[in-house]
Amino acid sequence: MAETLDVALVQLNTPADHASAWAQVEPLVREAAAGGAKLVLTPEGTNILEQRRDRRLAVIQDQDADPVVNGLRALAAELGIWLLIGSAIVKTGDPADPRAANRSILVGPDGTVKATYDKLHVFDVDLPTGERHRESESIRPGAQATVAETPWGGLGLSICYDVRFPHLYRALARAGASMIAVPAAFTRPTGEAHWEVMLRARAIETGAFVLAPAQGGEHEDGRKTWGRSVVISPWGEVLARAEGDAPGVLRATLDFSLVDKARRAIPQLTHDREFVGP
Predict the structure, then answer these.
(1) Is 262 helix (H, G, I), strand (E, B) or coil?
(2) How many whole angstroms separate alpha carbon 251 and alpha carbon 123?
(3) Among 5, 8, 70, 107, which is most exposed with the fewest C-beta within 10 angstroms?
(4) Which is the catalytic residue, given 38, 50, 135, 160?
(5) Which residues contact 105 (CB under 8 A, 6 or more apart)?
(6) First-residue to last-residue Cα distance in the chain
(7) Judging by beta carbons within 10 Å of its beta carbon (0-12, 13-18, 19+), is residue 8 exposed, middle or buried?
(8) Considering 38, 50, 119, 135, which one is annotated as catalytic?
């Protein structure tokens, strides 16, 4: 197993249709691979970012038919890279439930799907700014946590709002994750207040690298996202950070000896105790 890994996070401002989404993401993934990245990660909603339910339902596809997913699979094979589609909004194939899945898709260098994960925690909130979000109206939450095997060790999968649920990340680390992905489309108010501090906390709690590619800027459906994609070390240090919202590529080199070092220094993953609840 390799001791280091060159990664790249692709920051996007994904449009509301597949063709425009592909036109934005494809050259950035190529740029990431050309810079030497062996693992490339894109944000939540890579294939389409559209929160208006009627418009979303009119355009979403099954995973196997989605043009952005298929394009990225072919691109991973062409470039010989591992590629995490941070999430694609796709049909579930459940005739009894028309809601979509918000699904991370890990693609290997042969273009095959190695693992998937459906977002567990959906974003149903009323923000102090007056923003109201009801993701559960159009997204069916998942039920299974996932640690995907890669040549560099376990990659724990999560999406956006999941970051507020620390027990998920502890479970991923204890199941073998040395890296944890948090692709996101964070709102600006919550991003400015909470984005980086929560990601650093998840890294510290798990002793794992946190890789968080983000959407940024104002989108066609009216939402505004925070950007500031970031890579964080197992000790909670920021290794790389996008300074704004613009689409682009963020690079970092992961040294996996830091995972062992952090977990030996503070072996918190082995110190759980049973307790009686309040």
Answers:
(1) helix
(2) 29
(3) 70
(4) 160
(5) 63, 69, 84, 85, 87, 88, 113, 115, 116
(6) 44
(7) buried
(8) 119
Is 114 catalytic? The answer is: no
> In this predicted structure, what is the pLDDT of residue 132?
72
What does the chain come to in residues? 278
Q: Which stretches in the chain have pLDDT values below 50?
A: none
- Which among 38, 44, 50, 135 is annotated as catalytic? 44
Q: Which two tokens stand for residue 6?
A: 């060159």
Residues linked to residue 104 through DSSP beta bridges, in sequence order: 117
The verdict on whether 137 is a catalytic residue reads no
Contacts of 10 (CB under 8 A, 6+ apart): 25, 28, 29, 32, 40, 41, 42, 43, 213, 247, 248, 249, 250
Element (H, E) at 84: strand 82-91
Summarised one tens digit per residue, pLDDT across range 79-107 is 999 999 999 999 998 888 888 999 999 99
Round to whole Å and give the CA distance between 198 and 178: 18
In whole angstroms, what is the distance from residue 172 CA to residue 120 CA?
13
